Model the fold of this input.
Amino acid sequence: MFLIYLRRELSRRKKAALVISMGLALGIALVITVTSVSSGMKQAQTQVLKSLYGIGTDMTVTKAAEAQSSSSARPKFNFDAKSDDSSTSQSSDRVMTAGGQTLASTKVADVAKQTGVSNAVGALSLNVMKVDGTFTQGKAKSTTSGGTGEGGQGGGQGGGQPGVQGGGASFDVNSYTVYGVDTANLTLGPLSSSKVTTGATFTSAQSNAKVAVVDSAYAKTKSLSVGKTVTIKSVKYTVIGISTATSGDSAANIYIPLKQAQTLASSANKVSTIYVKATDSQQISAVKSTIQKNISGTTVTTSADLAKTVSGSLSTATKLATSVGKWLSVAVLLAAFLVAALLTSSAVSRRVREFGTLKALGWKSGKVTRQVIGESFVNGLIGGALGIALGLGAAYVVTAISPTMTAELGSTTSSAGGPGGGGMGGGPGRQAASKAIEVALSAPVSLTTIALAAGLAIAGGLIAGGFGGWRASRMRPADALRSVA
Amino acid sequence: MYKLTGVSKQYSRGKETVHALRSIDLVIEDGDQLVIQGPTGGGKSTLLQMIGGLDRPTSGSVELDGTDLAQLSEAKLTKVRSENIGIIFQSFNLIPTLTAQENVETALVPMGVKPAERRERAAEALRSVGLGERMHHVPTELSGGQQQRVAIARALVKKPKVLLADEPTGNLDEGTRDDIMALLDTMCQEYGLTFIMVTHDSALAAKAPRLATIRAGRVTVTEQAQSVRL
Done:
């Protein structure tokens, strides 16, 4: 009788049942959408951090920032101005360690010995700025002064705006990044966030070989392929592989063995960053403290630290989803529960005679209450199913559209050089500390989210039914007679 | 046998206290047919509620076969209602979503009768009131007279000792009224029921063997020797 009565009541009161179910469905769909978008944003942040760190890296160790001397980090280029008819091309490049701060290579072993450290690998990050072209003397009598200089790509990379006074110049500026990697341990470090798609990666034997792996985007720009050579500060490196970043941007344009990078930068036995993997990912904070305590003069940065520096639209959207979205979901869900409870209660009021009659016939209050809760429970299930369908649809739309979010990591303190005279001043400061990455947003729906939604739907149904059932149970059988008296 | 002793019922209506029943003493023997008549608001329905165990008196006792219904727990009172008392309402009070057969079955649910037996007994009860062909129809597909027949079947299917009727013909036309009263008379004879009916209808009241007239909460019982069967 319970099921027959339930089915008949729900089919008779389709509209009322649908209103209650739709109210619950909207609340639940919103919870699913917000939860999945929020989860997608967390994934995007993780993706951003991985692209910066490399897969499997839990933290990085760098030298603690020190006050830089005003001239030491700035590149200097020396060119000789030629006579008017000279067309001899001149070239000069500067190789600098990114950020200008390095650690002794021995620190890598020191870090690896620390409790909780599973693996530690050193790498040297370099910024290379190459300027080549022709430079001619100006003529003192000339009425049209030179000024034919062309700015190269360097401007956008933090280099100084080329400007030549008193002469003519035609030159090109090429700025790119190079990472010296430990060829004996490639599972950790900057190259671990990329996959070699053409050719091969380094072998342990190539610890000091003149070979390079080039990022696919850079290789395309410079028409580089496996077998060709790339010249860095007059040293030719054979390209053995083309790599593609597995997520976000690649760590560098060119990867070479660590020793080669140290030679180029005249930084023998130096590394700029130590990549660390912890034994237990739950103990990262403790490992960080251990390293900072035992190895002086270092800065340890974990994923969590880095996540705090993420800004841009991704950060804004994440904050929006976790704060406004969460409370909006809670508010809509509460409103849905309240509306469902009120509508159920109202339906009970309209059925005074019906429930009173059943009680007069000898139905116990509990049986009447169970009947009301049963009807409301089914409304909750229908609302849950509709809500899950709506939520999945919304999450699918978000994933299909894949809105692009920008994440800016770290501070943007790079110092841009202004136009100089014959030589070029300025150049990258702590450029490596700042990075903008674009990621596509998805909205993954986990089974936990669906279980949560189903649970909320059932809870909503039971709350509404409980409220209505409580009212029905308080009804006296005499009401059945009184309502018609 | 019913024995009402000093039954009073008061309830509040705003600031006013309404004395619906005032110290009523009444004995109704098994198999009696009692008609309760009186003006609107006189306390007829309230008295029927006390007899049916649907409400409790403010004071006094309502004994059914020696058990004071006023003192029973809600669970025991519910059990008494489900097993011993059949009730018919003026507006039929059928569950609109259930078929005639399912409506009759609702009276057997609290008794814990198995579904198959329930269906069979409900069908038999409907056949006995002449609705064998209409048992799968919902109330809106039945006429007023047919709906009241379903209500009678529902009241009798559990084979009660007492049948209470609150204005059972109040919503019916004259022809249907006579049919329903004839049916009730037959059923009461067949099952040997104690029958207590509230009515406004003077014609029906005149035919009752015992007439309880209730005015301002006080009852006067008249034995009508010349009465005919209801």
Observations:
- The two ends of chain A are 29 Å apart (CA to CA).
- Residues 2-47+315-403+441-482 of chain A form one domain.
